[in-house]
Amino acid sequence: MIASSTRIGRLREAMHDAGFSGLLVSQPDSRRYLSGYTAKDLPPRDSAGYLLITEDRQYVLTDPRTEPLAAAEAPDFELRLYSGDVRMPELLGALIAEAHIKTLGFEANHVPYGLWQEIAGALESRVELKPAGSLIDRLRMVKDVDELAALRASMALDVAAFAHVARGLRAGQPESELAWEVESFLRIHGAEELAFPPITVAGPSSAIPHAVPSQRPVGADEPILFDLGARVGGYCSDMTRTFCIETVPAGMRDAWNVVLEAQLAAETQVRPGMTGAEVDAIARGVIERAGYGDAFVHSLGHGIGLEVHEPPWLSPTRGTDILLPGMAFTIEPGIYLPGLGGVRIEDVVLLTEHGSEVLTRAPKRLVLAEMLADLEGSVDLDG
Fold this sequence. Notes:
By secondary structure, this protein is an alpha+beta fold.
């Protein structure tokens, strides 16, 4: 696999620079990124496998249940099996001794302490175990051609699902029914799974950023917030639109306009070389100057790819990474007014040499009829 070979080559360069003679990869999305192996973990106790990358060899470590899948999907990797007789830490120890690894990096954010203890015990004092930090994240943040194609396909499906559900939306439908319609459309039309459970909420619930849909019927005169995402070819989509079926409640039109202004300011001003915190400040400044600063309670955005939330972060506190061409991330300012409702508008954008390309090709309108008119001209509503 050309993509896998290129990624492994870049990883080995990063390992050399960090002083690692071996790297244990346990995070499922990083495992898939490097090898193509797609098996799912059953957290927190049951892993579908691990990668061991050395200076000149690469292995998939798994058990007999997933051996055929690993062999088919990761042909560039040597396959080694653990089972009841030989547990993973013991197999890892034997391979490390064979490769003469002195310093083994591991993904500290994904290796539970109990597993770390078992690995350390199997290696005794022969090998230094060191956290790998953001070694793999830095590779994954800049998307290659294949990744961008999958992201575009995922976003197109997401927009089609939104268009389909919006066309049939009527006052009185339960929030949970709308969530099921989103999920059904995505699965029927090619999503391998959802990126996250759909958020289809209205009225006071829309003032809770990550509310859970209930049996409550949506009204014609309240804000309705749709936040949905698919996974296509492994890659996630994520979009949010807020609108009203008919009447816009007092106070919501101004909040909606401010959110849109903040989003467009960030999308048009972002450039390579900025930090995520600097982009967050662009949108946050618009909202603060309009008097809604305390109502913007989350960060501006997050990276997106094999994970729906991944680096880089567009955040006042975590947004320290320098943004580079090829990075994809969300821009999703929000204003949340308890008791009245909330507004969030979210796009996925691709950073280019000269600015941003918006990948979310869905209109932004406050009233449903205007939204549908724009959708009719730009989206295949029948999927």
